[in-house]
Amino acid sequence: MDLRELKKEVELLPSVDKHLKGFQDSWIKPIRSNTNQHIPFLQDLPQETKQELNRRLQLLSDSFQNVKDSQLINDKLKHYARYLIELKLTTFNGDQSKSKMLSSRMLNDDFLNIKQTITEVQNFESHVKHIEQNYHEVNQLLHKQLSLEEVVFFMELPHLKYLKGLLKLADDHKVITRDIGRHLVVLTKQTQLGGRR
User: Is the dihedral of CA 72, 73, 76, 77 positive or negative?
Assistant: First the structure.
């Protein structure tokens, strides 16, 4: 994808917080015993099942926090898109010092280091996959305890939509980061070749 498309894709990235909050509100809150008064059949689960559910949900707290903190990835990708456009313009105009400064910032900056962002994107995907795995395990546990009507009612809540949104966002992060890296390599080479002329 070219830089214009890349910038547009980055700007269209949905908020991590929106998907995470929607997922927690439609999946975690109904399962937790102190927040599910509006779903009586979940209150009637055996105590052993409730304890197992709470244990599994507790295992997810780190992943939820890490996913929430990953909103910074969207912000970094927006910075990269802007820097790449600026880098292309400065390379085209022959401004070697500014081109080198922009390349250096994307490669060596404490906050905007592309290598660090790649690691953050991988961690985000890992935590979302961990949430997905536990989501399916908890739902299987619930399916064993609930009637068909209750399962249908619970599964009609929009939690799966929000989980799929997080999974898609993880994929989008990977694709966009890969494209940013490709553009950075090409533009950095052009900058270096331009300086040797």
Answer: negative
pLDDT band at 37 (very low <50, low <70, confident <90, very high): low
Mean pLDDT value across residues 163-189:
95
What's the pTM value of the predicted model, to 2 decimals?
0.87
Contacts 24+ apart (CB under 8 A), 44-49: 45/145, 46/145, 49/141, 49/145
Tokens of 121: 């994107």
CA distance 44 to 161: 26
Residues counted in the chain? 197
The pLDDT of 6-12, averaged and rounded, is 95
The answer to whether the beta carbons of residues 100 and 148 sit under 8 Å apart is no
Structure tokens at 176: 């966009």
Q: pLDDT by residue (tens digit) across 41-52?
A: 777 788 888 888
Looking at residue 197, its pLDDT comes to 45
Distance of alpha carbon 163 from alpha carbon 24, whole angstroms: 10
Helices (H), 60-113: 61-69, 71-93, 96-108
User: Among candidates 158, 154, 156, 159, which has minimal Cα distance to 41?
Assistant: 154
- The candidate with the shortest Cα–Cα distance to 81, out of 14, 15, 9, is 9
In one-letter notation, the amino acid at residue 133 is Q
DSSP letter for 36, please. Answer: -
Cβ-contact 27, 135 below 8 angstroms: yes
